Amino acid sequence: MAEDTNKLLSAVLAAMREGVLIVHSRMEIVLYNDAAARIFRLPEPTSPVGLPTKPAQIPVKSAGGLSDANRQPAVSGRQSRLRLVDATRDPAINDTFRKALDRRETLDARLEMVGSTIKCFYLHVSPLGNDLAVGIFSDVTELERLERVRREFFANLSHELRTPLTAILAYAETLLNGALDDLENRRQFVEKLHKHASRMKELISDISDLSAIESGAVKLAPGPVRLRSVVADVIALAEARGRPSRVSLRVSIPDDFVVQADRSRLEQILYNLIDNAIKFNKEGGEVTVSASERERKVTIDVEDTGVGIPESDLPRIFERLYRGDKSRSRKAEGTGLGLAIVKHLVQAHGGEISATSVFGKGSRFTFTLPASTSKAEEENDAAPSLAPLI
Ligand code: ADP
Question: Which of 61, 166, 256, 378 is the most exposed place for a label (fewest CB within 10 A)?
Fold first, then answer.
């Protein structure tokens, strides 16, 4: 019976995502699970269950502490007791266990571990009696990153909304304070009012679009869509909006490529990518839209010879409201929401999107969509339905 329980506990410990260390008051590790072995680069735990009352003999292969390859092995010899401070190389961990054991109370700590990347952990230590304490290490790196992104989003959002609002108030006050009678300039003031109000509207409509897509409230209606005809429609729309006057557009997509997609959402994806490729291009530059098909997946590339994206910005461009190099981006119109919307729409289609770029030379956005098993129907080649979406 006890053996069954041991086996069960052993399996639970091995399956846990959190690292578990059991430490004796001599500050030696009595037991650890697989996750702790991964975190601290310890040898695989041999028998994690059956709590011994004295420190376990832990076979040591190369207990090199956290991550630094140049470190000396934490302990030497074929069999050795593993000291907590040697295994973790972090005095804060040692302190937390020591305090919890001395005071016989539960303690929490936040730790940063520097390896090839910085990882953040929450450590929760509880005394177990018998001179032992258990510490649970939860990796919160991703959670903290998301929280940071969320905080930045709200800070950026209020900034983005406040800027046009401040301008609207200023122009309205100027008009009320007498400029209404200034026949020469009043039209110009009203035009400015209109411009800033339009920008606010654009921002708010992008945000509600994004949150609807993110929350799954937007239902896609996928069907077979002939890729080349959608790209042609999007380019025609961009041309109608006077976009590509400075750049030349090339399309290299076989006529028979049919993807399984919601046509209007696919137009939205392509419009955002093509519009950016034009907007961030150089005078006389090029934009190329091409596609290839492999294993029932169509890969679409939108490539430009524009200003490019600095390497440091590249991982962040799909974040909400993120805009690259501020001075450059501010000149180009946009909300910084386009790529976040595009990413969610591509994912909602079961595809993936990525970007590569050489700063100063150009960028390439690549996304995938499932290939359709049936032929595109005539009705899918109907007029584009983009207008309300962009
Ligand atoms: P917006 O275009 O409204 O600023 P996006 O979400 O579409 O917002 O793009 C976010 C940022 O990514 C842009 O501000 C720009 O810095 C960068 N970016 C996007 N596409 C390109 C591109 N083709 N070339 C260079 N930079 C780009």
Answer: 378
